[in-house]
């Protein structure tokens, strides 16, 4: 008993091997065998060697002495098999396969292992207790003993305790341990069949839950095996995982067995490897993608050995298993990132829900309705809304217990709450510690692989310091601005102009004045439009972005010309043209009544027609206001080709380029169709296209504006 600390010596009887070998009492959760139909057929008696006969004789005499089995006269019986142990001995197994086929399944749940891993947040001290002979802790229900009969050359015997090999055995054991430790589950312990884990936040707190857990077997007759127990450790292996105060990681003793594992040569070996990897899939990012090629070899008629793609994934998966990260326990008591990222009105409503849940005991049985004040005006209609999202419906159900009304109270009137909630020493300020006090500021906005892509981007942008130097030099070289700088340097004031004291740049209404130098203007546009971080905005948004900080004459036309000639924008943005003119309505003569009635109807029809024409023209002018005229092309013109009807190798249509090219026009087929010169590799695509699928290529008039060629596009496994 050296394994058991002296603190728990009062529970040494729980670890008694002699008591664990006694026949347990009957309980309400005894193992019941429910048959579907008749009794299973009788199994044959297999011939046995001398070693097997000795093992059988010892097993029968030992268990008869314990009272676990007794002679049987059952009309059924299962055969006996033997399996070799690691030490060379034999292990007796009763082959209950036919009995299990006739047994009705017990639906009592055994908890999934992955759901037992989420309760250890904040725990630093662990103990593990192993129940000895957990299957023999249960009795067979009275009247079902004859169904467990096994036949051998020394006679027929039936079990009084639950043997190994029966279906529903694990459900019965879980039912027993849940009944014993029900009030301790997920509070201070986790129980999976015969393995018990006790966890606490500190060494001092750990003694009480361990003592409570050890007292339960004493009162219910299960016993623990001291050699398999651990007490007061900071790291422990449990159910194939290693738990510690830092987090959860894989059991390296099991993982290291895969290091020298050869590639699978048949589906069974592949299933075995993937089954092991699936157990630890939560440690491997994008696990399903990393095994996609391997799982394809599980299909029927797959040919082994593995191809290069599957073999590469096999080695990558082995490396991922041996270099897996440490998983942190989920902090359920803290706000999750999704809650921190709620929209403003959701956060305001969550505050009301949280407050009413906190004060529920005081508000639930008020004799009169109470009033909730909020500075979010949209919330005053929440309880009367006809449409609710799933989240709102859940919150509305929680709030419906209380009788209250939500009233809009402007923030400017909330002087008393602001005095408490907006104190300078409590609320995070815009200073050095603002980021550390706002967790959402740590959210990763750009992934690491995207950062690497930006580093290798084809767009080369001058640094900000170089841009300032270039503007300063160009201003002094421009005669108009040189005079203004000289006057301002003498201390004179000039209307609409000022001089920045730190950078010595010329400002016009707080905007940096840029001289008439296309090179500098192009550098600014590369920062505000061409850069991946600028997102290739349209003409109006780019103009607004540049105007916010810079000013030069002819800026609008310069930006319009640059954006319209941008290849990335031309490829990826939709272009709208004027709609085709509508056909004139055709008057068809019909039989109409004669006389005054006919004249009146014709007059009304003419009025309707005239009003409709006015209305149609009004809508047409409004619709055509932002649309351009359809283009007219000549042979030799360069055009973009719409990818609407062309399939590429991109994973989805949404990620494909909207325009392909550019391509030269060979000839005009008709007023609505043109013949293009396509790449020679595009043999499967007809080169004649409708005018609606073509768009002219706009060339930049800015000098030295050379753009990097875009990467090739794969069309039906053929490069553009």
UniProtKB/TrEMBL annotation:
<keyword id="KW-0479">Metal-binding</keyword>
<dbReference type="GO" id="GO:0006508">
    <property type="term" value="P:proteolysis"/>
</dbReference>
<dbReference type="GO" id="GO:0006310">
    <property type="term" value="P:DNA recombination"/>
</dbReference>
<keyword id="KW-0540">Nuclease</keyword>
<keyword id="KW-0238">DNA-binding</keyword>
<dbReference type="InterPro" id="IPR056924">
    <property type="entry name" value="SH3_Tf2-1"/>
</dbReference>
<keyword id="KW-0695">RNA-directed DNA polymerase</keyword>
<dbReference type="GO" id="GO:0015074">
    <property type="term" value="P:DNA integration"/>
</dbReference>
<keyword id="KW-0255">Endonuclease</keyword>
<dbReference type="Pfam" id="PF24626">
    <property type="entry name" value="SH3_Tf2-1"/>
</dbReference>
<dbReference type="InterPro" id="IPR050951">
    <property type="entry name" value="Retrovirus_Pol_polyprotein"/>
</dbReference>
<keyword id="KW-0808">Transferase</keyword>
<dbReference type="Pfam" id="PF00078">
    <property type="entry name" value="RVT_1"/>
</dbReference>
<keyword id="KW-0239">DNA-directed DNA polymerase</keyword>
<keyword id="KW-0064">Aspartyl protease</keyword>
<feature type="domain" description="Integrase zinc-binding">
    <location>
        <begin position="519"/>
        <end position="574"/>
    </location>
</feature>
<dbReference type="InterPro" id="IPR041373">
    <property type="entry name" value="RT_RNaseH"/>
</dbReference>
<dbReference type="Pfam" id="PF17921">
    <property type="entry name" value="Integrase_H2C2"/>
</dbReference>
<keyword id="KW-0229">DNA integration</keyword>
<keyword id="KW-0460">Magnesium</keyword>
<dbReference type="Pfam" id="PF17917">
    <property type="entry name" value="RT_RNaseH"/>
</dbReference>
<dbReference type="GO" id="GO:0003887">
    <property type="term" value="F:DNA-directed DNA polymerase activity"/>
</dbReference>
<dbReference type="InterPro" id="IPR041588">
    <property type="entry name" value="Integrase_H2C2"/>
</dbReference>
<dbReference type="GO" id="GO:0003964">
    <property type="term" value="F:RNA-directed DNA polymerase activity"/>
</dbReference>
<keyword id="KW-0378">Hydrolase</keyword>
<feature type="domain" description="Reverse transcriptase">
    <location>
        <begin position="83"/>
        <end position="242"/>
    </location>
</feature>
<dbReference type="GO" id="GO:0003677">
    <property type="term" value="F:DNA binding"/>
</dbReference>
<dbReference type="GO" id="GO:0046872">
    <property type="term" value="F:metal ion binding"/>
</dbReference>
<dbReference type="GO" id="GO:0004519">
    <property type="term" value="F:endonuclease activity"/>
</dbReference>
<feature type="domain" description="Reverse transcriptase RNase H-like">
    <location>
        <begin position="333"/>
        <end position="401"/>
    </location>
</feature>
<dbReference type="InterPro" id="IPR000477">
    <property type="entry name" value="RT_dom"/>
</dbReference>
<keyword id="KW-0645">Protease</keyword>
<protein>
    <recommendedName>
        <fullName>Reverse transcriptase domain-containing protein</fullName>
    </recommendedName>
</protein>
<dbReference type="InterPro" id="IPR043502">
    <property type="entry name" value="DNA/RNA_pol_sf"/>
</dbReference>
<keyword id="KW-0548">Nucleotidyltransferase</keyword>
<keyword id="KW-0233">DNA recombination</keyword>
<dbReference type="InterPro" id="IPR043128">
    <property type="entry name" value="Rev_trsase/Diguanyl_cyclase"/>
</dbReference>
<feature type="domain" description="Tf2-1-like SH3-like">
    <location>
        <begin position="636"/>
        <end position="697"/>
    </location>
</feature>
<dbReference type="GO" id="GO:0004190">
    <property type="term" value="F:aspartic-type endopeptidase activity"/>
</dbReference>
